[in-house]
Amino acid sequence: MRFTKTIGTALALMTSVAAAQAAPEKIKIGYISTLSGPAGSLGEEMLNAYRLGLEHTGGKLGGIPVELVTGDDQAKPQTAVQVARQMMERDKVSFFSGLLFSHVVDAVNAVVLPRDQIVVAPVGGSSETAGEKCNQNFFMVSWNTDTMFEAIGSQIAKSGIDKVAVIATNYQAGWDAAEGFKRGYGKAPTAEILVKLDQSDFGAELSQIRAADPKAVVVFLPGGSGIAFMRQFQQSGLQRTVVPYAATFQADETTFQALGTAAKGLMNAGPWSPYLDNPSNKRFVQAFREKYGRNPSILAAMSYDTVLLLDKAVSDAKGDVENPATFREALRRAKFPSIRGDIHFGNNHFPVQNFYLSKVADASGGGLHNELVGSIFEQRADAHQAKCTMKW
Fold it and tell me: Which residues span the membrane (predicted)?
């Protein structure tokens, strides 16, 4: 009997020790983003929303206190790699989050994923990371760029518009946008124009668009380039006869002030709207308005939603974020109260979700807003899942 008691006590102690090891006293998040330079305002927008999400979870994930270790990648892959290495080796972060641009995401992934570090990125996915380069340690919370433009192509096709020009940046995300549009539209555009990432003068490209005589133009030009193009598009007079289409982030609360009336009438697609009717979204939008005096942007929304996902996943993993297999499985199957409503991960760790059509219009209280028009896709997966070999 004494021997049995001893074994029972030992097992209880072992279980207690294992539980203590599984749940750390503090979770360190390695948050890398673009916090300076021309795109620094976008990174700050996302970081503010991430912090708001942590405020709403009491500064904890799954009941465990969080330390947010932030680093500025300056939109440079080599800088992001240096920051990631420092976070792994000096700061001993539990996992990585943040991130903004796909080429920076790719650079960070190449360094941290082989070391069994998990990355939960709000944005910055690409067709490659969704397809043949999918990885068990990488999760994309928001979208794949080409799925948003597939939605745009589908919407334009439904509208019966038969002549369309596409203008996009000449890098992976721009290529994805153009390909996604073609897939949704069902045929090649009348004109397809690729430009430099930091281009600011679009005189030649606007002449090409005018010569093509389209009824719509599809735009993927992030940051300052997009602002410059939309202003010049308006000044050229093309806005009177050509309807602009883009992803929601092309014209939202981060750019309305700079764009002014050049943004009005822009039709845009995305997986979220501040007007979606669910409790999580209402709480988020109201809190963001109270804090910053305006609606959140879609980048802010994806950042906030990342925290909601992490909170549920850490809870389901009982805090064991240091065990990649346990944390990975919890992320895959987390049923969290997303501000987008019904959402789940596909086999490639990219979301299956709804996509909506919005239109930039005058807001009742002044300024501009993205007025929700309707639904484009319901529970849509990206087109690259079949190329991903992960099974779970």
Answer: none
Strand partners, 192: 166
Distance CA 221, CA 258 (A): 15
Other Cβ atoms less than 10 A from the Cβ of 162: the count is 13
Concatenating the DSSP letter of every residue in 136-156 gives: TTEEESS--HHHHHHHHHHHH
Q: Where do the H-state alpha helices sit in the chain?
A: 2-22, 40-56, 77-86, 102-112, 127-130, 145-158, 172-185, 203-212, 223-235, 256-259, 279-292, 298-316, 324-333
Give the contacts of 223 (CB within 8 A, at least 6 positions apart).
38, 39, 42
Q: What residue has token string 């987008």?
A: 340
Confidence of residue 16 (pLDDT cuts 50, 70, 90): very low
Cβ contact 93:30 at 8 Å = yes
Domains of the chain: 20-143+276-341 (3.40.50.2300), 146-270+355-380 (3.40.50.2300)
Span 235-261, average pLDDT: 96
For 225, list phi and psi in degrees, rounded to 5.
Answer: -60, -40
And the tokens for 68? 């947010």
Confidence of residue 23 (pLDDT cuts 50, 70, 90): confident
Structure pTM? 0.92
Name which of 32, 71, 55 is nearest 304 in CA terms.
55
Q: What is the pLDDT of residues 208-219, one digit of tens each?
A: 999 999 999 999
Contact 190, 163 (CB under 8 A): yes
Tokens for 25? 């006293």
Instruction: Provide the angle, in degrees to the nearest 10, between the axes of the packed helices 102-112 and 172-185.
Output: 110
